[in-house]
Design a protein that fits this description.
By secondary structure, the protein is an alpha/beta fold. The protein has one domain: Rossmann fold, CATH 3.40.50.170. A 7-stranded mixed β-sheet has the order 3-2-1-4-5-6-7, with helices on one face. Helix 1 links the parallel strand 1 and strand 2. 40% of the residues are buried. Bound molecules: glycinamide ribonucleotide. The site of glycinamide ribonucleotide has 18 residues, from helix 1, strand 5 and helix 6.
Length: 206
Amino acid sequence: MVNIGVLISGGGTNLQALIDGVNSGTIKGKIRVVISNRKDAYGLERARKANIESIFIDPKGYSHEKYCNVLLEELKKRDVELVVLAGFLKILSREFVNEYKNRIINIHPSLIPSFSGQGYYGEKVHQAVLDYGVKYTGATVHFVDEGADTGPIILQEVVKVDNEDTVESLREKVLKVEHKILVEAVRLYCEGRLGLKGRKVIIDRE
Ligand code: GAR
């Protein structure tokens, strides 16, 4: 069983998918703690309902580095082995990333490297997709490195953009795919099936 820590900032539908994945036995892991940088994040409530420890850590009063150190301490205290960023809208410090090297997984609502990096998060991504007029978008799960959305890609899935799509409809379509590939990536990680060759993720599907 892999000890998982989940960081969130919002509604937590991806967190819910992970909770369901653990409860159904798909993911051979245990969510030890859910941490939010926002007090009103509904994901905290989802964790509570699932009897998972959930904590809000206010970034106010901390430098960015210090805040990341506080997160690190809380995760280590609970023996967290894998950190999942499930809609966590903050960039992690170099120190944090080094401590959990190749053990941090992020979900992003586009086909990286399109519509990713600094400033591309949440609905801004879907707005940019619509403004650009691409015909396909999607979702990406990747390991986190020191950059913004630049780490090795684990899984991606395509979503078609229709003429009638709005930010809201696109968000819904992409979220469905996010939930699926995030659970799959965490499942593979917990089963030890993800290897790295340079920046390429090799999946052992035997
Ligand atoms: C998701 O779409 C996730 O991909 C995105 O925030 C949303 C959180 O939704 N993350 C990013 O944009 C990170 N750059 P949720 O709280 O319902 O899981």
